[in-house]
Amino acid sequence: MSKWTDSETVTLVADFQKKPSWMPVHEFCQKWGSPRGRSADSVERQLRRLQCNIGKIYVQPSPYPKYDTPLTLEGDALILSDLEFPYHNAEFVNRCMELAEAWGIRQCILAGDVIHFDSLSGWEPNWTTSNTGGITAEAEQKLTAFAQTLSAKQQGKFFELLGNIGDRKEQDGLSTELDVARAGLKRIIAQFDHIDFVLGNHEGRLLRALEVTINPDELLRLLDAKNPKMRIAPYYYSYLDTQCGRYQIEHPKGASEGTAQQLAAKYHSHVIMGHSHLLDFSWDISGEFYAIHAGHCVDETRLPYAAQRHTTRRAHKPGAVIVMDGYPYLLHWRTDWERMKRIV
What we know:
CATH topology of the largest domain: Purple Acid Phosphatase, chain A, domain 2
Helix content: 25-40%
CATH superfamily of the largest domain: Metallo-dependent phosphatases
CATH class of the largest domain: Alpha Beta
CATH architecture of the largest domain: 4-Layer Sandwich
Shape: globular
Number of helices: 12
Distance between the termini: 35 Å
Low-confidence stretches: 129-133, 166-170
Radius of gyration: 22 Å
C-alpha cells in the first residue's frame, strides 16, 4: 500500500474531528478508507500514530481477520455470471466477449459459479448417468499433484474425497469439468487485462467436499488459472467503482426476484447480481440505484434439473452486463450484436 501523503493525513485528521461522537471508530475508518483504497485497519493505525483521540484501550482487539476488503476494480468491465463450466453457453459468451473487445473493455468480473462442480454436487444423479465407478489415471494424477500443494491435514481430507469421486462416466467426471474450465478461463485471461473471480455457491461445493477451510488461491491453482491478471478473494461479491458510483457485483444467498432491489437499498449501491439466473433491469425502491439480475451464461439445456422437468417459476434467461462510463448495458439473448458494436 502506498505511503501516506501529507495532504492525505491532513484530510484524515480534519474528517475525523468532524466525526459524530456516536459513530464507531472502525466504521469511520472503513467509510473513509474504502474509496481511497485503504483498509479500515490502516486508517485506524494512522490515527493512532497521529495521536488522535480514538478512545482508551481496555481490552485488546480480536486477533481474527475482518472481512471488509473485497476485490475492487475501477472503470469499465464485462460482468459474466453463472458460467458453470463445462455446461457454459459458448455462443452467448463468445458474443459478449466479442462486443467487449469491440468496445475496448479490458476488465472482466466473473460473478460466481464459474465452474459447476457437478461431480461434487449433493444432488441425485440424472437419468442419463450410469454408475461406472473410479476416475481415469490422468485425472487422479492431476488431483494428486494439486493435493501436494495443501497442508498435511488438507491432504488427508483431499485423498479421502478422491476415493469417493468419479462414480459416474468419465465424460461426467471431475477431470472433464476441470479441463473444460481451464480452457475457458485461459481464453478469458488472454483477452482481458484484469479479471476478478467472485465466489459462488457452486465453488462452495469444493469446500463442502473437502470439509476444511482453504485459501481461494487453491481454487485458481486447481483450475490452472493462477495468473497476475486473475484475482480471487474469500468473498461472494466484489466492487466496481465508476464515474457514476459504485457497483456491487453480487452472488448473494438469496435468489428471489426482489433480491437485487433489496441489496441496492440496503447498501446504497448499484447492484449487479448472479445466482438467480433471472434477467431483470430495475432500480431499488428509491429509484436511485440500479438493481440488475444479470441472467446466466450457462446453457440450461445441458442441465438435467433445468431441462428434464418443467416448473411454473419465472423463466431463466442468458444474460451479462457491460458497465461502460458508469452506465450498465444489459446483454441478453435478443441483443442486436452488430448494432451494439457500432455504438462506440
